[in-house]
TrEMBL record:
Alphabetically ordered keywords of this record: Hydrolase, Metal-binding, Metalloprotease, Protease, Signal, Zinc
InterPro entries associated with the record: Cell_wall_metabolism_enzyme (IPR050570), Csd3_N2 (IPR045834), Dup_hybrid_motif (IPR011055), M23ase_b-sheet_dom (IPR016047)
Keyword Glycoprotein: no
Named cofactor requirement(s): Zn(2+)
Protein name in the entry: M23 family metallopeptidase
Residue stretches making up the M23ase beta-sheet core domain: 276-373
GO cellular component terms, semicolon-separated: cell envelope
Domain Csd3-like second N-terminal as annotated: residue spans: 148-263
Source species of the chain: Candidatus Cryptobacteroides merdipullorum
Record-level Gene Ontology MF annotations: metal ion binding; metalloendopeptidase activity
Protein backbone atom coordinates (compact mmCIF):
# COMPACT_ATOMS: atom_id res chain seq x y z
CA UNK A 1 0.00 0.00 0.00
CA UNK A 2 1.35 3.42 -0.94
CA UNK A 3 1.60 5.74 2.07
CA UNK A 4 0.91 9.43 1.82
CA UNK A 5 0.85 11.86 4.71
CA UNK A 6 -2.10 14.18 4.21
CA UNK A 7 -2.96 15.58 7.61
CA UNK A 8 -4.22 18.83 6.13
CA UNK A 9 -6.31 17.09 3.51
CA UNK A 10 -9.90 18.29 3.38
CA UNK A 11 -9.47 20.61 6.38
CA UNK A 12 -10.95 23.56 4.58
CA UNK A 13 -13.91 21.53 3.44
CA UNK A 14 -14.32 19.87 6.79
CA UNK A 15 -14.57 23.19 8.60
CA UNK A 16 -17.61 24.23 6.57
CA UNK A 17 -21.09 23.66 8.00
CA UNK A 18 -23.75 21.52 6.39
CA UNK A 19 -25.44 23.98 4.04
CA UNK A 20 -26.00 24.79 0.38
CA UNK A 21 -24.41 27.78 -1.32
CA UNK A 22 -26.59 29.71 -3.75
CA UNK A 23 -24.45 31.52 -6.35
CA UNK A 24 -26.05 34.19 -8.55
CA UNK A 25 -24.35 36.20 -11.27
CA UNK A 26 -25.73 39.69 -11.00
CA UNK A 27 -29.48 40.27 -10.89
CA UNK A 28 -31.73 37.30 -11.50
CA UNK A 29 -33.84 37.49 -14.65
CA UNK A 30 -36.43 35.19 -16.16
CA UNK A 31 -34.89 32.12 -17.69
CA UNK A 32 -31.66 32.32 -15.69
CA UNK A 33 -30.83 29.19 -13.75
CA UNK A 34 -29.45 29.28 -10.23
CA UNK A 35 -26.05 27.61 -9.79
CA UNK A 36 -26.13 25.47 -6.69
CA UNK A 37 -22.92 23.99 -5.33
CA UNK A 38 -23.08 21.22 -2.78
CA UNK A 39 -20.52 21.47 -0.01
CA UNK A 40 -18.15 18.54 0.63
CA UNK A 41 -19.22 16.19 3.42
CA UNK A 42 -18.12 17.20 6.90
CA UNK A 43 -15.90 14.16 7.42
CA UNK A 44 -14.43 14.16 3.89
CA UNK A 45 -16.64 11.21 2.95
CA UNK A 46 -20.33 10.39 3.24
CA UNK A 47 -20.82 7.91 6.12
CA UNK A 48 -24.25 6.84 4.84
CA UNK A 49 -22.62 5.35 1.73
CA UNK A 50 -20.76 2.74 3.79
CA UNK A 51 -21.59 -0.12 6.11
CA UNK A 52 -20.72 0.87 9.65
CA UNK A 53 -19.76 -0.73 12.92
CA UNK A 54 -18.71 0.51 16.35
CA UNK A 55 -15.78 -0.73 18.39
CA UNK A 56 -15.49 -0.03 22.11
CA UNK A 57 -12.08 0.94 23.46
CA UNK A 58 -11.08 -1.54 26.17
CA UNK A 59 -8.59 -0.98 28.96
CA UNK A 60 -5.08 -1.68 27.68
CA UNK A 61 -5.99 -1.33 23.99
CA UNK A 62 -3.46 0.36 21.73
CA UNK A 63 -4.44 2.21 18.58
CA UNK A 64 -2.91 -0.50 16.39
CA UNK A 65 -4.84 -3.21 18.25
CA UNK A 66 -8.09 -1.28 17.76
CA UNK A 67 -7.49 -0.84 14.04
CA UNK A 68 -6.63 -4.54 13.61
CA UNK A 69 -9.80 -5.44 15.50
CA UNK A 70 -11.70 -3.47 12.85
CA UNK A 71 -9.99 -5.46 10.09
CA UNK A 72 -6.85 -3.53 9.23
CA UNK A 73 -3.56 -5.27 8.45
CA UNK A 74 -0.98 -5.00 11.25
CA UNK A 75 1.59 -3.19 9.09
CA UNK A 76 -0.98 -0.65 7.91
CA UNK A 77 -2.31 -0.12 11.44
CA UNK A 78 1.20 0.61 12.69
CA UNK A 79 1.91 2.94 9.75
CA UNK A 80 -1.32 4.84 10.40
CA UNK A 81 -0.43 5.26 14.07
CA UNK A 82 2.93 6.74 13.03
CA UNK A 83 1.10 9.42 11.03
CA UNK A 84 -0.83 10.55 14.10
CA UNK A 85 2.10 12.22 15.87
CA UNK A 86 1.51 15.78 14.63
CA UNK A 87 -2.25 15.50 14.04
CA UNK A 88 -3.87 13.68 16.94
CA UNK A 89 -2.62 12.57 20.35
CA UNK A 90 -3.55 8.89 20.54
CA UNK A 91 -3.53 9.13 24.35
CA UNK A 92 -6.84 10.97 24.05
CA UNK A 93 -8.51 7.70 23.06
CA UNK A 94 -9.85 6.52 26.42
CA UNK A 95 -11.24 3.19 27.58
CA UNK A 96 -15.02 3.14 27.33
CA UNK A 97 -15.09 5.46 24.31
CA UNK A 98 -15.82 4.24 20.77
CA UNK A 99 -14.39 4.26 17.27
CA UNK A 100 -16.81 4.15 14.35
CA UNK A 101 -15.70 1.97 11.43
CA UNK A 102 -16.91 2.34 7.82
CA UNK A 103 -16.60 -0.52 5.29
CA UNK A 104 -17.17 -0.79 1.55
CA UNK A 105 -19.15 -3.59 -0.13
CA UNK A 106 -16.14 -5.96 0.06
CA UNK A 107 -15.95 -5.43 3.83
CA UNK A 108 -12.70 -3.49 3.43
CA UNK A 109 -12.16 -0.90 6.17
CA UNK A 110 -12.14 2.49 4.45
CA UNK A 111 -12.48 5.00 7.28
CA UNK A 112 -12.66 5.24 11.06
CA UNK A 113 -13.90 8.17 13.12
CA UNK A 114 -13.08 8.96 16.74
CA UNK A 115 -15.34 11.62 18.25
CA UNK A 116 -13.27 13.54 20.79
CA UNK A 117 -16.34 15.36 22.11
CA UNK A 118 -19.66 16.70 20.83
CA UNK A 119 -17.90 19.07 18.41
CA UNK A 120 -14.48 17.70 17.44
CA UNK A 121 -13.62 14.43 15.69
CA UNK A 122 -10.61 12.77 14.07
CA UNK A 123 -10.96 10.89 10.78
CA UNK A 124 -8.61 8.05 9.82
CA UNK A 125 -8.42 7.06 6.16
CA UNK A 126 -7.58 3.36 6.21
CA UNK A 127 -7.33 2.25 2.56
CA UNK A 128 -5.69 3.48 -0.66
CA UNK A 129 -3.44 6.19 0.81
CA UNK A 130 -3.34 6.49 4.59
CA UNK A 131 -4.29 9.85 6.09
CA UNK A 132 -5.56 11.53 9.26
CA UNK A 133 -7.41 14.82 9.66
CA UNK A 134 -9.39 16.63 12.33
CA UNK A 135 -12.85 18.09 11.78
CA UNK A 136 -15.14 20.34 13.78
CA UNK A 137 -18.90 20.32 13.49
CA UNK A 138 -20.73 23.64 13.11
CA UNK A 139 -21.50 25.23 16.47
CA UNK A 140 -24.34 27.64 17.10
CA UNK A 141 -23.95 30.31 19.80
CA UNK A 142 -27.28 31.20 21.39
CA UNK A 143 -27.94 34.12 23.72
CA UNK A 144 -30.26 33.05 26.54
CA UNK A 145 -31.97 34.34 29.66
CA UNK A 146 -32.72 32.12 32.65
CA UNK A 147 -34.85 33.17 35.62
CA UNK A 148 -34.57 30.76 38.56
CA UNK A 149 -36.31 31.08 41.92
CA UNK A 150 -35.21 28.56 44.53
CA UNK A 151 -38.04 26.25 45.53
CA UNK A 152 -36.36 22.93 46.34
CA UNK A 153 -32.70 23.28 45.33
CA UNK A 154 -30.69 25.38 42.90
CA UNK A 155 -29.82 22.23 40.94
CA UNK A 156 -33.42 21.04 40.45
CA UNK A 157 -34.85 24.50 39.90
CA UNK A 158 -32.14 25.49 37.42
CA UNK A 159 -32.79 22.37 35.32
CA UNK A 160 -36.54 22.96 35.49
CA UNK A 161 -36.00 26.51 34.20
CA UNK A 162 -34.03 25.27 31.20
CA UNK A 163 -30.58 25.97 32.62
CA UNK A 164 -27.69 23.54 33.00
CA UNK A 165 -25.33 22.25 35.70
CA UNK A 166 -22.55 24.14 33.92
CA UNK A 167 -24.45 27.41 34.36
CA UNK A 168 -24.71 26.67 38.09
CA UNK A 169 -20.94 26.18 38.26
CA UNK A 170 -20.36 29.43 36.37
CA UNK A 171 -22.59 31.35 38.77
CA UNK A 172 -20.88 29.71 41.75
CA UNK A 173 -17.51 30.88 40.42
CA UNK A 174 -18.75 34.41 39.75
CA UNK A 175 -20.47 34.87 43.13
CA UNK A 176 -18.07 32.81 45.26
CA UNK A 177 -16.96 35.87 47.24
CA UNK A 178 -20.42 37.31 47.87
CA UNK A 179 -23.03 34.51 47.88
CA UNK A 180 -22.91 31.37 50.02
CA UNK A 181 -24.18 28.75 47.56
CA UNK A 182 -24.44 26.12 50.29
CA UNK A 183 -26.88 28.19 52.34
CA UNK A 184 -29.36 29.36 49.69
CA UNK A 185 -32.92 29.85 50.92
CA UNK A 186 -36.29 29.18 49.36
CA UNK A 187 -37.27 32.27 47.38
CA UNK A 188 -33.70 33.28 46.47
CA UNK A 189 -33.55 34.24 42.81
CA UNK A 190 -31.00 34.31 39.97
CA UNK A 191 -31.67 36.10 36.67
CA UNK A 192 -28.91 35.53 34.14
CA UNK A 193 -28.06 36.57 30.58
CA UNK A 194 -25.53 34.27 28.94
CA UNK A 195 -24.42 32.69 25.68
CA UNK A 196 -24.26 28.93 25.24
CA UNK A 197 -22.94 26.67 22.48
CA UNK A 198 -25.15 24.09 20.73
CA UNK A 199 -24.04 21.44 18.23
CA UNK A 200 -26.47 19.18 16.37
CA UNK A 201 -29.18 20.37 18.74
CA UNK A 202 -27.19 19.29 21.81
CA UNK A 203 -25.90 21.56 24.55
CA UNK A 204 -22.10 21.86 24.38
CA UNK A 205 -21.20 24.43 27.02
CA UNK A 206 -21.52 27.93 28.42
CA UNK A 207 -19.57 30.47 26.37
CA UNK A 208 -19.99 33.55 28.53
CA UNK A 209 -22.13 34.74 31.41
CA UNK A 210 -22.72 38.38 30.48
CA UNK A 211 -24.87 39.53 33.38
CA UNK A 212 -26.60 38.16 36.46
CA UNK A 213 -28.81 39.49 39.23
CA UNK A 214 -29.06 37.71 42.58
CA UNK A 215 -31.82 38.49 45.09
CA UNK A 216 -31.50 36.50 48.29
CA UNK A 217 -32.65 36.40 51.89
CA UNK A 218 -30.24 38.49 53.95
CA UNK A 219 -28.52 39.91 50.86
CA UNK A 220 -28.78 43.18 49.01
CA UNK A 221 -29.50 42.70 45.31
CA UNK A 222 -26.14 41.68 43.82
CA UNK A 223 -25.43 42.34 40.17
CA UNK A 224 -22.60 40.67 38.28
CA UNK A 225 -21.61 42.60 35.16
CA UNK A 226 -18.96 41.16 32.87
CA UNK A 227 -16.71 44.07 31.92
CA UNK A 228 -13.09 43.72 30.88
CA UNK A 229 -10.49 46.47 31.15
CA UNK A 230 -7.23 47.00 29.29
CA UNK A 231 -5.38 46.04 32.47
CA UNK A 232 -7.10 42.64 32.64
CA UNK A 233 -7.67 40.99 36.01
CA UNK A 234 -11.13 41.28 37.54
CA UNK A 235 -13.93 40.52 35.09
CA UNK A 236 -17.19 40.78 37.07
CA UNK A 237 -18.31 43.93 38.87
CA UNK A 238 -21.35 45.01 40.87
CA UNK A 239 -23.60 47.82 39.68
CA UNK A 240 -21.34 50.42 41.33
CA UNK A 241 -18.24 49.22 39.50
CA UNK A 242 -16.78 47.39 42.50
CA UNK A 243 -15.15 44.03 41.79
CA UNK A 244 -17.06 40.97 42.97
CA UNK A 245 -13.72 39.42 43.85
CA UNK A 246 -13.11 39.87 47.55
CA UNK A 247 -10.25 39.27 49.91
CA UNK A 248 -11.94 36.14 51.31
CA UNK A 249 -14.20 33.35 50.04
CA UNK A 250 -17.60 33.01 51.69
CA UNK A 251 -16.76 29.50 52.91
CA UNK A 252 -13.66 27.26 52.85
CA UNK A 253 -15.50 24.11 51.70
CA UNK A 254 -18.64 22.59 50.22
CA UNK A 255 -20.55 21.65 53.33
CA UNK A 256 -23.83 19.91 54.11
CA UNK A 257 -24.92 22.23 56.91
CA UNK A 258 -23.77 24.54 59.68
CA UNK A 259 -23.79 22.28 62.73
CA UNK A 260 -22.74 24.90 65.27
CA UNK A 261 -22.63 28.67 65.08
CA UNK A 262 -20.46 31.40 66.57
CA UNK A 263 -21.32 31.91 70.25
CA UNK A 264 -19.80 33.11 73.51
CA UNK A 265 -21.89 30.67 75.58
CA UNK A 266 -22.24 27.30 73.89
CA UNK A 267 -22.51 23.96 75.68
CA UNK A 268 -19.70 21.78 74.35
CA UNK A 269 -21.18 18.61 72.75
CA UNK A 270 -18.47 16.38 74.27
CA UNK A 271 -17.55 17.91 77.64
CA UNK A 272 -20.94 19.49 78.38
CA UNK A 273 -19.26 22.65 79.67
CA UNK A 274 -20.53 26.13 78.82
CA UNK A 275 -17.76 28.04 77.08
CA UNK A 276 -17.22 30.38 74.12
CA UNK A 277 -17.27 28.81 70.67
CA UNK A 278 -15.83 31.55 68.47
CA UNK A 279 -16.09 29.43 65.35
CA UNK A 280 -18.51 28.06 62.80
CA UNK A 281 -18.70 24.26 62.52
CA UNK A 282 -19.41 23.01 59.00
CA UNK A 283 -20.69 19.42 58.91
CA UNK A 284 -19.27 17.56 55.92
CA UNK A 285 -18.12 14.02 55.09
CA UNK A 286 -14.60 12.94 55.99
CA UNK A 287 -12.28 13.75 53.12
CA UNK A 288 -14.18 16.82 51.89
CA UNK A 289 -11.57 19.26 50.45
CA UNK A 290 -10.84 22.37 52.53
CA UNK A 291 -9.53 25.51 50.81
CA UNK A 292 -7.76 28.64 52.04
CA UNK A 293 -10.25 31.50 52.12
CA UNK A 294 -7.60 33.99 51.04
CA UNK A 295 -3.95 34.57 50.22
CA UNK A 296 -1.62 34.23 53.18
CA UNK A 297 1.13 32.36 55.01
CA UNK A 298 0.67 29.19 57.06
CA UNK A 299 1.71 29.93 60.66
CA UNK A 300 0.56 26.66 62.26
CA UNK A 301 0.25 23.20 60.74
CA UNK A 302 0.11 20.26 63.09
CA UNK A 303 -1.63 18.77 66.11
CA UNK A 304 -3.60 21.09 68.37
CA UNK A 305 -3.22 19.90 72.00
CA UNK A 306 -6.39 21.73 73.13
CA UNK A 307 -8.73 19.38 71.22
CA UNK A 308 -8.61 20.83 67.71
CA UNK A 309 -6.87 17.80 66.22
CA UNK A 310 -5.06 18.45 62.97
CA UNK A 311 -5.08 22.22 62.58
CA UNK A 312 -3.95 24.84 60.08
CA UNK A 313 -3.71 28.54 60.83
CA UNK A 314 -3.10 31.15 58.12
CA UNK A 315 -2.03 34.78 58.47
CA UNK A 316 -3.59 37.13 55.89
CA UNK A 317 -3.11 40.81 55.08
CA UNK A 318 -4.78 43.65 57.03
CA UNK A 319 -4.51 41.82 60.37
CA UNK A 320 -6.75 38.86 59.49
CA UNK A 321 -6.08 35.22 60.45
CA UNK A 322 -8.05 32.05 59.73
CA UNK A 323 -8.03 28.62 61.39
CA UNK A 324 -9.13 25.17 60.16
CA UNK A 325 -9.42 22.35 62.74
CA UNK A 326 -10.29 18.63 63.06
CA UNK A 327 -8.74 17.92 59.64
CA UNK A 328 -8.28 14.28 58.67
CA UNK A 329 -5.02 15.18 56.94
CA UNK A 330 -3.13 18.07 55.38
CA UNK A 331 -2.78 18.65 51.64
CA UNK A 332 0.57 17.86 50.05
CA UNK A 333 3.10 20.66 50.45
CA UNK A 334 1.28 22.44 53.27
CA UNK A 335 3.56 23.24 56.21
CA UNK A 336 4.52 26.18 58.42
CA UNK A 337 5.84 28.98 56.20
CA UNK A 338 3.99 27.87 53.05
CA UNK A 339 2.51 30.72 51.01
CA UNK A 340 -1.04 29.85 49.96
CA UNK A 341 -3.40 31.49 47.52
CA UNK A 342 -7.14 31.99 47.72
CA UNK A 343 -8.97 28.75 46.96
CA UNK A 344 -5.85 26.57 47.31
CA UNK A 345 -6.41 23.08 48.73
CA UNK A 346 -4.92 22.92 52.23
CA UNK A 347 -6.51 19.86 53.85
CA UNK A 348 -9.48 17.54 54.24
CA UNK A 349 -12.41 17.37 56.66
CA UNK A 350 -12.06 14.88 59.50
CA UNK A 351 -12.92 14.23 63.14
CA UNK A 352 -9.49 14.41 64.76
CA UNK A 353 -9.15 15.80 68.28
CA UNK A 354 -12.24 16.30 70.41
CA UNK A 355 -15.12 15.84 67.97
CA UNK A 356 -18.41 13.94 67.82
CA UNK A 357 -18.23 13.49 64.05
CA UNK A 358 -16.57 14.78 60.88
CA UNK A 359 -16.76 18.55 60.55
CA UNK A 360 -14.60 21.63 60.04
CA UNK A 361 -14.12 24.04 62.94
CA UNK A 362 -13.50 27.32 61.10
CA UNK A 363 -12.39 30.55 62.79
CA UNK A 364 -11.43 34.08 61.75
CA UNK A 365 -9.68 36.81 63.73
CA UNK A 366 -9.34 40.48 62.84
CA UNK A 367 -6.36 42.04 64.62
CA UNK A 368 -6.57 39.37 67.30
CA UNK A 369 -10.33 39.68 67.85
CA UNK A 370 -12.51 36.66 66.95
CA UNK A 371 -15.29 37.48 64.49
CA UNK A 372 -18.23 35.45 63.21
CA UNK A 373 -17.23 33.98 59.81
CA UNK A 374 -20.86 34.05 58.67
CA UNK A 375 -20.98 37.81 59.26
CA UNK A 376 -17.57 38.65 57.83
CA UNK A 377 -17.69 41.70 55.56
CA UNK A 378 -14.81 40.72 53.32
CA UNK A 379 -12.71 43.67 52.11
CA UNK A 380 -13.31 44.48 48.45
CA UNK A 381 -10.77 44.73 45.67
CA UNK A 382 -10.10 48.05 43.96
CA UNK A 383 -13.08 49.54 42.06
CA UNK A 384 -13.09 50.29 38.35
CA UNK A 385 -10.95 53.20 37.23
CA UNK A 386 -13.11 56.30 36.72
CA UNK A 387 -12.11 56.31 33.03
CA UNK A 388 -14.24 53.19 32.52
CA UNK A 389 -17.32 54.20 34.50
CA UNK A 390 -19.23 55.87 31.66
CA UNK A 391 -19.00 52.79 29.44
CA UNK A 392 -19.66 50.51 32.41
CA UNK A 393 -22.80 52.40 33.46
CA UNK A 394 -24.11 52.25 29.90
CA UNK A 395 -23.50 48.50 29.76
CA UNK A 396 -25.22 47.97 33.12
CA UNK A 397 -28.23 49.96 31.90
CA UNK A 398 -28.34 47.91 28.69
CA UNK A 399 -28.37 44.63 30.61
CA UNK A 400 -31.08 45.83 33.00
CA UNK A 401 -33.21 46.75 29.99
CA UNK A 402 -32.57 43.29 28.53
CA UNK A 403 -33.68 41.64 31.76
CA UNK A 404 -36.87 43.70 31.74
CA UNK A 405 -37.47 42.75 28.09
CA UNK A 406 -36.90 39.05 28.75
CA UNK A 407 -39.35 39.20 31.64
CA UNK A 408 -41.90 40.82 29.33
CA UNK A 409 -41.35 39.00 26.00
CA UNK A 410 -43.77 41.26 24.13
CA UNK A 411 -41.25 44.12 24.51
CA UNK A 412 -38.36 42.20 22.88
CA UNK A 413 -37.25 43.78 19.64
CA UNK A 414 -39.24 46.99 20.28
Amino acid sequence: MRLRYSALMLLAAAALPFSVLSCKNGGETAGESEIVEELPPLYGFEPSEFDSDTVEVKYGDTFSVLMMRMGMEASDAYALSELCDSVFDLRKIKAGNHLHAYYDSTRTLRYAIYEQDKVNATVFQCSDSLAIWNVSKPVEHIRKFTDVTINSSLWNDMLAAGGSPELIMNLADIYQWSVNFFALQKGDRFRTIYTQSVCDGEFVGIDTVHFSLFDGYGYKQTAAVRFETAEGGNTYWDKGGVSLKRMFLKAPLKYNRVSSRFSYSRRHPVTGKIKPHTAVDYAAPTGTPVHAIGDGTVTKCGWDPTGGGNRIRIKHNMGYESSYMHLSKFASGIRVGTRVTQGQLIGYVGATGTATGPHLDFRIWEKGRPIDPLKLDSPASDPLDSAYLRDFDALYGKYMSEVAAFEKPDTLGN
